[in-house]
Fold this protein.
Amino acid sequence: QVQLVESGGGSVQPGGSLRLSCTAVRYKYGTFCMGWYRQVPGKEREGVAVIGLGGNPLYADSVKGRFTISRDNSKNTVYLLMNSLKPEDTAMYYCAAGSALSLSESWFKDWGQGTQVTVSS
């Protein structure tokens, strides 16, 4: 099982930026995609961005042009740089490790504990 450790959440004003990090402590063979998902209480978890082993990204329409996902394979770490943050980006953000370049969480079996992002003036 892969253990994922997240960091970087916090509070920021609208228009601000945050960078989330997620490190896979135990990396298992066949897990080649990492992604970020978010959830607001009372709503379903939604895919934000996913990145393949080669660095190819996939973004939700709601974050295209504002968020950038990247990875450092030597450190088993994935990053999510969030710019031009909006109040509607407020959510618990989860890191996930999975087997397909897809925003569908059905492909992701290992999850972090989550880090809160709050965008408010």
Observations:
- The chain is about 0% helix and 50% strand.
- The two ends are 39 Å apart (CA to CA).
- Residues 48 and 62 are 8 Å apart (CA to CA).
